[in-house]
Queue: 3 jobs
Job 1
Amino acid sequence: MSGNVEFPMNGGDGANSYSKNSRYQVEAINLVKEMIKEAIAKNFDVTSPSFSSNTIRIADLGCSVGPNTFIAMKNILEAIEWRYHSKNLTSEMPEFQLFFNDHAYNDFNTLFTTLPPDRQYFAAGVPGSFYGRLFPKSSIHLMYSSFALQWLSKVPEELLDNGSLAWNKGKIHYTIASKEIADVYAAQFAKDMDTFFNARADEIIVGGMMILIMPGFADGVQYSQDPSCPFFYAFNQSLLDMVKLGMINEDEVDSFNLPLYATSPKEMTKLVERNGCFNIERMEVFADYNIPLLQS
Ligand SMILES: C[S@@+](CC[C@H](N)C(=O)[O-])C[C@H]1O[C@@H](n2cnc3c(N)ncnc32)[C@H](O)[C@@H]1O
């Protein structure tokens, strides 16, 4: 795998589809439900002039096909409605417009045909990479993304360069490779996050917020202790076995690198502060889940 990364999860609702194989992700979404409610109660100022249009616009970046995105969006809408109730503003309850974003090759047909029939929002699809602008300036009140920012925008070039110290020969991921290779992944993640924050800062209204759920691990944990490490190791070994059996050649393994990166609270804090567009209101690590909440 090389170049820009643009491939979606398995669509449809068959046995191998994302919708039937994303329990891990939905468990995290449910785990943070109360945190999101608290964050919206504390930080989402529905009385500010930015909320005066009576339409609240929310985007899910890297939504895939559902049902996870529908569950996450329902949780967010309930939290916002509760916020209006708690302020005795029920007569001013807004309408909601939800934007479901993913790569153009995402199975948007499945997404749209399975939209909850009882939904209380207007739905729209937005194709394209979130490592770039997706919305007009100052148009979105709340940005949400879960389990998508671990995908780098591209495989770092050094991994494929046999003249570089970071040439990833025979390996497919940094968690099972040398420090030089891990550094190259970290540098790509830093660049990608900067691009992501700059685009979102343009698009979010003043007083809006961003909720990010990302795979990660606690500060100080070594890359090799990443809980996904045994999976990457087994995957790598299988490819090397296939080389031995003559099913694929060595060059194909050398050119295959998984563009996946898991961050830590310390690293995220550094990247957010260096970028300067957002403040971190709350960030927590749940077992092997890492859940930053950022507000513009
Ligand atoms: C593991 S799925 C997560 C889906 C859903 N958010 C959830 O929590 O279950 C990751 C999704 O992010 C999307 N994705 C990855 N990189 C992206 C990018 N640069 N722009 C838009 N979507 C992206 C993938 O296509 C995929 O559908």
Job 2
Amino acid sequence: MSDLLYLMEQRRSIRRFENRSVEPEKVEMLLQAGLLAPTSKNSRSWEFIVVDQQDLLQKVSLCREHYSGFVANAPLAIIVAVDPEKNDAWIENGSIASTFIELQAEALGLGSCWVQVTRRPHNERISAEDYLRNILYIPDNMRILNVIAIGYKAQELEPRHVDEVLLSKIHRNGY
Ligand SMILES: Cc1cc2nc3c(=O)[nH]c(=O)nc-3n(C[C@H](O)[C@H](O)[C@H](O)COP(=O)(O)O)c2cc1C
């Protein structure tokens, strides 16, 4: 098995983190991974917002009513914002950069979890995007794809394996 496939098997969504910050060199490597991601027409239409202040992480964790609360206990979050005017494939551009960051996290011995922001409500009045836009001063032209919570793992999850069920998803020379 290749090193990369091994890493992909090991990566799981981690939602519990040790009370320990991520070293600045590792934060830089996570960001470099995002910056090295391919983009449509090399548009590099993303921006990465690094949050490592506890009070701000607490506020970020409230972006959604459910499925985001664990961000409050992460030492680090990277918010991926993308400019849809620069390139219409903004979801793809942001998603690939996010995936690179998550794989780099695993390679650095860190855990991570994607929190969906686009198309999710904060409450019945405003979107999760607008909530984050306000607290992080993100310009109106940017769409906010997700929050990636990152930190040292405080939970162990079984690695994934490609089994017979998943192999049935592969179709050769036609569906
Ligand atoms: C597009 C996308 C959106 C996700 N949104 C959330 C989320 O809002 N909250 C959360 O806790 N996990 C979220 N996840 C993590 C998934 O629940 C997780 O990847 C999935 O259950 C598979 O588990 P694994 O990552 O451990 O293999 C998201 C993952 C993706 C790819």
Job 3
Amino acid sequence: MQTSIFLTARLLRKAHSRARPNILRALPCVFLLGLLDTSFAYDAARHPVYTNQAVIAFRGCGYTLPASAAAALAAGTQDEDTAPLNLYDRSTNWHFYNREGRLRPWAFGNRSLDRIFAKRSQALEIALRGESNINDVYHRAGQVLHYIQDMSVPAHVAPAFHMKLPLWDRSDPFDNFTAPVDSAPFALTSKQCSELSDQITTDPVTATRLLANAAKRTLSAISPSVLEGQTSDTDWRAYWIYPSDNHADAANGWGAYGLCVFARRPQRSGCKTPRQEEALFALQYQRTVTDSIRILIYLDKRRAKRPTTAFPPQQSLAGQH
Ligand SMILES: [Zn+2]
């Protein structure tokens, strides 16, 4: 196995020897390495942290949630990246937004989140309608929430290819960015609590809508505004490009990273200042936690609406066929 991993790593290095790599060349290698190495993992630690912050704010709005369900939700957001049982799904489904529907499936799996998000959403719906215990429902909800949270990361929606493997680190700097230590903790006013509650219905497509809205919001946050020819707060083309300037990647729906690195350090002219980077990160962080609260409110309303004795859940599901 070690030899195979070494050879795969050599192939990856060869495929990425140019300054602007063609993603297509690396795909089979990435897939093989993903299956060969059981430590295959992405940076997943942020998901449960953000989810726990959302739970605190959710409870601050007056809602109640058992500690075990909150823990299951947070675990679900992390398990989607790291649980051994998810290894196959993770290797064959990447978490990129299908920006114009051109990230099509390839021989070994899906380059966008489309199929896995639909699968996880369906599993959540079945759990909500069935007799699953509350921890199972919230764990499945965490798996769905993972993708909604991903949509606040610009590289996931650009989409700019990135991946972190033991022998091949192309991790995303936004994922590793940390908020300034003097950042205010996330909190909602009672008015904001009411507004969020008013927005959320029990419509089963709520999670799908939240994901699409989150992706569009991120794109608008990094896309050039109407100030043509001027640098605006929403012009982040030096960081994330779409379409990719590699023609083969562009034809397959990919964007790319620009010349600036989102790393809060002095850079070449044309890059943003550290303060501007911090402002974008703070905005996206707030959106991630707020979307997580929206899911919590949605789950609360779905559970409240669920019939307890009207008819058995099994019959309810059978009626869908
Ligand atoms: Zn992800």
